[in-house]
Amino acid sequence: MEVDVAFFDDPGDRKADQVDGAIGELSPFHEMNGYYAQGVSVTTATLPDGWRDRLVVVESRSTHPGRGLTLDPHVHPAVLKRLRAWVGMYR
């Protein structure tokens, strides 16, 4: 499993590069936990107008003192259904 991580205050993508180096694909973190993060720029994806208004805060005791923002913390069941159908077509 992979998670994209972007920073709003990272114009030179230095923080994104640090994510790749520390907890990126094939890192010791990835090998130990079975998932990794990929540092990306906020300009990587082309998103519709108003996407920042739909961000959801991800914050808990385990993220303190940091917090994250996500577009959607849950995958919609209709998306999963379509993905399963698509995978089935190409087996």
Helix and strand run? EHHEEEH
Tally of DSSP β-strands: 4
Binned strand content: 15-25%
What global shape is seen?
Answer: globular
What does the largest sheet look like? 2 strands, parallel
Structural class: alpha+beta
Percentage of residues in helical conformation: 25-40%
Contiguous helical run count: 3
Rg is 16 Å
Q: Could you give the order of strands across the largest sheet?
A: 1-2
As residue ranges, the low-confidence spans are none
Mean pLDDT: 82
Termini Cα gap: 21 Å
Would you kindly provide a written description of the structure presented here, covering whatever features stand out?
The protein is α+β, with helices and mostly antiparallel strands. The mean pLDDT is 82. The chain has helices spanning 14-23, 28-33, 77-89; strands spanning 2-6, 36-40, 56-58, 68-70. It is built from three helices and four strands, in the order βααβββα.
Task: Report a brief summary of the structure.
The protein is an alpha+beta fold and 91 residues long. The chain has helices at residues 14-23, 28-33, 77-89, and strands at 2-6, 36-40, 56-58, 68-70.
Give a topology summary:
Elements: E1 2-6, H1 14-23, H2 28-33, E2 36-40, E3 56-58, E4 68-70, H3 77-89
Parallel strand pairs: 1-2
Antiparallel strand pairs: 3-4
Observed structural traits:
single chain, 91 residues, alpha+beta, two-stranded parallel sheet, two-stranded antiparallel ribbon, 3 helices, 32% helix, 18% strand
